[in-house]
Amino acid sequence: MKNSPRWAILAPIVIAAVLVSTAVYTQPARGRRVSVAATSPAVVSAWNDVLAQMERAGDLRTTCVEDDLQVPGRRFERLQQSYKGVPIWGADIVRETDGASVRSVFGKLHNDLDLNTVPGITGDQAKSVIAEVFGLTDTSGTEPVLVVLPTDDGRYALAWQASYFTGTALPVVFVNADTRAVELHYDNLQRQTPAIGRGTGTYGDLKKITASLLASYLAYDNHYRPVTIATYDMKGNLARVQSVESRGARLDWSDVAPVEPRAP
């Protein structure tokens, strides 16, 4: 029997006379990935109502809360979406609050899933599949966790997620909990290697983008001495932009744009 989440009724949001341009969100199609980027009061309020419905239904739960180190009184709350009690990999929301007020909502959600969440194999059996496929003799790393995996071809798969350190790599593997197939795997080992990419400038010219590795890769290039080049990302936070432009707030490392290095 199809499970219809109670929060799935996302009526079209029509916003009139809004000074700041915002996206209009309508009810997602079946199994559709929903990207949320709400900053204007009307859209934030509408999405916060949806999140509240999901929380009451048990489809969304808070995983961590952090204070905003730049703006006193503000906090960032991260919420993880689940389906029938199973977390959906990569489906989370960041909700920025200022006291009792919600200032912004960002993240990804998945709507109208129809998936059996009873695994056909155990976590130990998934470990055996990983050992066989990747030739591992030691699978005593992190115990497998059952997740709902959104795949690149638009499907949703119930999978066991596990990670193991091989000495030279830190593979993260997703084994289909029904077919035993490896749905996805990647190396999560962080290496201190400089990353250089390319981008298009304002006038359509080619730009080289050099990333510096601090806690993570950031769009900060200090190779052009004595001048450094930094790219800042306000992450859709209009209040932060205004504080920098109008009130002289100081830009810092948390404002530098993150960079995801990619192989050529």
Task: Sum up the structure in keywords.
264 residues, mainly beta, Nuclear Transport Factor 2, Chain: A, 4-stranded antiparallel beta sheet, 3 helices
Write a structural description.
With 264 residues, this protein is mainly beta. The chain has three domains: 6-110, Nuclear Transport Factor 2, Chain: A (Roll), CATH 3.10.450; 123-187; 195-255, no CATH class. The protein has three helices and 14 strands. The strands form four sheets. Strands 1-5-4-3-2 form a five-stranded antiparallel beta sheet, covered by helices on one side. Strand 6 (145-150) and strand 7 form a beta hairpin. The protein is globular. The relative contact order is 0.11.
Would you kindly provide a brief summary of this structure?
14% of the residues lie in helices and 35% in strands.
Oligomer: single chain
- Give the fraction of residues assigned to helices: 10-25%
Largest sheet: 5 strands, antiparallel
Count of domains:
3
Strand order of the largest sheet: 1-5-4-3-2
Q: Name the CATH architecture of the largest domain.
A: Roll
Alpha plus pi helix count? 3
Q: Count the beta strands.
A: 14
CATH class of the largest domain: Alpha Beta
User: What class, by secondary structure content?
Assistant: mainly beta
User: Which spans of ≥5 residues are poorly predicted at pLDDT below 50?
Assistant: 4-31
Distance between the termini: 46 Å
CATH topology of the largest domain: Nuclear Transport Factor 2, Chain: A
**Overall mean pLDDT score?**
77
Principal-axes geometry comes out as globular
Instruction: Report the sheet-strand fraction.
Output: 35-45%
Radius of gyration: 21 Å
